[in-house]
User: What shape does this take?
Amino acid sequence: MTEARVRLLDAAVEHIARNGAEHSLRTLATALGTSHRMLIYHFGSKEGLLTEVAREVERRQRTVLTDLDPTLPPDKLARVFWRRLTDEALRHNEKLFFQLYGQALGGAPGTAEFLDGVIDDWLAPVEALLERLGVPERHRAAQARLGLAVARGLLLDLVTTGDREAVDAAMERFLTLQNAGFLQT
Amino acid sequence: MTEARVRLLDAAVEHIARNGAEHSLRTLATALGTSHRMLIYHFGSKEGLLTEVAREVERRQRTVLTDLDPTLPPDKLARVFWRRLTDEALRHNEKLFFQLYGQALGGAPGTAEFLDGVIDDWLAPVEALLERLGVPERHRAAQARLGLAVARGLLLDLVTTGDREAVDAAMERFLTLQNAGFLQT
DNA sequence: GACTACCTGTACCAGGTGGTACATGTACCA
DNA sequence: TGGTACATGTACCACCTGGTACAGGTAGTC
Assistant: This one.
């Protein structure tokens, strides 16, 4: 992957995150300070470009989870993860994530592989995290699915309303319920 | 609203739910058994059509909550709500909901009002439901936001994977945690 | 029959679409 | 010096886009 291409892809991700994915090659290219000819040259086609953008966004998302410091005390892991995920700097990225998600649900070209791993690929790492948190094995699968849903649902709330305080409070409430749940069952 | 228009709108919602919203007026019209001329005639423009579709989908979603039988025992309300929300017949509608959501996040024309109420308009009714469930007032706001996120997150999971059993288990787990939480705090 | 309101088909338009052909520029390496 | 690989600009293409003009059709009312 050449440098010019990397630069264009970064700029495309950034711009699409801020302005939506519904542009023609020409308007997008102009916004990126290049010509539509160059986008075709580097990515082959419009579909090729969008595919790469989707791949890149998913890659960045996953990085947030895998980069977690495993030496952290288990009870802080979830909070650190959440804080990272909701970092202001990532906000546009998260928004784009849901935009692409929507397009993928509609069967947009080049986004099928996006859907394939969007749930399943996250369950295993989350289950591993839950194990460290002391969640009993019989609850881990459902709990992981639930945790993923909570994260996605609250993230969707955050990119919609921008009400960080309220969303954080809801996450805090979830973690409290989760802990109370362990003690009981 | 004339009958022909209602018929077209219904058909449009149905078709877009199944095949995505990224069509030209012509392909959409052909699929609906009419001509793009008719869509313009009845809805004024493409944007007008999409606006009406979004409005209709949101209206149908909200109906699921407001139609709940208020004489039901509180502990069953949540489950009945969830069962209705995840009804097979509504599946396409839920999928379309997330497609439109994504487009709205990207700033698509005619979808701005969709975003306005998509969180806030749900919080009050959910809080009312939580009150009936016996959630103490000081936790109700966060709990409502959390409940909404869980529903949206698991619904997103459902329309992605179609794995009803796993998603139901996660919801069941959430309700369990919720009950355990009340007893403690 | 005449008038009216709603509906629909045909034909067309200007502008935008993704994609291509071809010529050129630039930089590094032999 | 020439060659080669990457990069870029210009001009063009066939096609599709949303939207419009216009001419009817159909049904009910007076």
User: Anything to note?
Assistant: Residues 2, 4, 34-35, 37-38, 41-42 of chain B lie near DNA strand C (CB under 10 Å from a C1'). Chain B touches chain A through 53 residues (CB under 8 Å). Residues 137-161 of chain B form the longest helix (25 residues). The CA atoms of residues 74 and 133 of chain B lie 5 Å apart.
